[in-house]
Design brief:
Length: 158
């Protein structure tokens, strides 16, 4: 659980480009799923890996590389875990979990470096909504966060 809390705080901090408020940090301590979802399909990620060669010049800036690499390492770690845990925590299916679990260190570094931008999306609206609630309500909100985080970005309801 400590790994999950740490990656959630890292990704939230990166997505917001600022230090997290005490309320947001407290809320993230309650969330039991990853706050990020992949922005790319497995097919797109594999295509990116297949196109990378020694002549690839388009690279992310270091903060994006580090955030991408942390996220992919987390996905790989949890994808190799217990089946039900990985589906709920990572918001993925069996095929996606197998893909993430099978990534090598080199592939993670390549994706982190050469994917155009971040490989993840953080639902900041869900996090801020939960952080704004009173402690009791925030606990209930955090329990339901898995469904809200996975929910399409077309709807921005708390």
């Amino acid at each position: 659980m400590t790994d999950l809390i740490c990656i959630n705080k890292r990704l939230a901090s990166f997505a917001r480009f600022e230090n997290l408020s005490t309320r947001v940090e407290s809320y993230l301590d309650l969330v039991t799923t990853c706050i990020a979802t992949p922005v790319a399909s497995m097919t797109d990620m594999q295509a990116c890996l297949d196109q990378i060669d020694e002549h690839s010049t388009t690279r992310n800036i270091p903060p994006v590389i580090y955030a991408n690499r942390d996220y992919l390492n987390f996905l790989r770690l949890y994808s190799a875990g217990k089946p039900m845990t990985r589906f709920v925590v990572l918001h993925c299916d069996l095929e996606q979990a197998a893909f993430f679990a099978g990534l090598s260190n080199q592939e993670i570094t390549q994706l982190a470096t050469y994917w155009p931008g971040t490989l993840f999306d953080v639902r900041q609206d869900v996090i801020q909504c939960g952080a704004d609630l009173e402690p009791g309500a925030a606990t209930l909100h955090a329990a339901a966060a898995a469904l809200m985080i996975r929910k399409s970005h077309d709807s921005r309801e708390c």
